[in-house]
Specification:
Layout: H1 4-15, H2 21-42, H3 46-57, E1 63-64, E2 74-75, H4 76-110, H5 114-138, E3 151-152, E4 156-157, H6 166-179, H7 184-190, H8 198-231, H9 233-236
Helix pairs in contact: 1-2, 2-3, 4-5, 4-8, 5-6, 5-8, 6-8, 7-8
């Protein structure tokens, strides 16, 4: 049976591996179980079992680059977990962005005239902006846990999702600019068959799609960050 002091020893070891706290907790539970099983099966002390487990995990804590999301090196196991989690969120975000793109194209063809489409264009993109702002407003109580430099015991970022919450601000700010524009070029290209501004037509369609996808991805990160905060209450109380 592992004591609380021994559990804290495992926690301190994992903190030193530069893991975000949500990943730390996930690995910690698994490592505690492994140490306990090894103690029981081989009838050895905690220190001996813990040493063997640390040696078996050593390759997983090798620092690697993940420049797409992290400016510094992170443990290999963290990169694997993050890639798997992000891939799922990105697929959902991409599907949402593609759905919005399809709706945008549909609105071009059902709009009675360009003024109608411009209104639809603003409403469609404005809904993404409004949704992200409302999520932030209704969750004001956890704003203090959104800072990328908010750490646990001076070493760990709270969650892997915290890295991308800044996207909410960046994408929302960019979406304000899109909402202030009109979809003239896309409407003229498809509805009036004016093909003189192909590049601007692509920009009119692709830029909102990219921002919508990124904004949804940021919102998903925010939601997952909030879920993880709820799971980590006992750790948060000590900060």
């Amino acid at each position: 049976m592992i004591t609380e002091v021994q559990e804290n020893k495992i926690t301190d070891y994992l903190i030193a591996q530069q893991l975000s706290l949500d990943i730390l907790i996930e690995i910690r539970d698994h490592m505690i179980s492994q140490v306990s099983d090894l103690q029981s099966n081989e009838n050895i002390s905690f220190d001996e079992a813990f040493l063997k487990i640390k040696e078996s995990w050593s390759g997983e804590f090798k620092l690697v680059n993940y420049l797409l999301f992290y400016p510094t090196t992170i443990p290999l196991i963290a990169k694997r977990i993050i890639q798997e989690k992000y891939a799922g969120l990105f697929r959902k975000s991409l599907m949402t962005g593609l759905l919005a793109l399809g709706i945008n194209l549909l609105l071009i063809f059902i709009a009675k005239n360009q003024d109608y489409y411009n209104t639809f264009f603003k409403l469609l993109n404005g809904s993404f902006l409004l949704g992200s702002v409302l999520i932030l407003v209704f969750n004001y109580k956890i704003w203090k846990y959104l800072k990328t430099d908010f750490k646990y015991k001076g070493k760990c970022l709270y969650t892997m999702y915290q890295q991308n919450i800044g996207l909410l601000v960046v994408c929302a700010s960019s979406m304000v600019q899109v909402v202030m524009k009109n979809g003239n070029y896309a409407y003229q290209f498809f509805k009036e068959h004016n093909h003189s501004e192909v590049v601007l037509t692509l920009v009119t369609l692709i830029l909102p799609f990219i921002l919508q996808t990124a904004l949804v991805f940021a919102v998903f990160n925010f939601i997952e960050h909030k879920k993880n905060l709820l799971k980590m209450q006992e750790f948060l109380k000590s900060t």
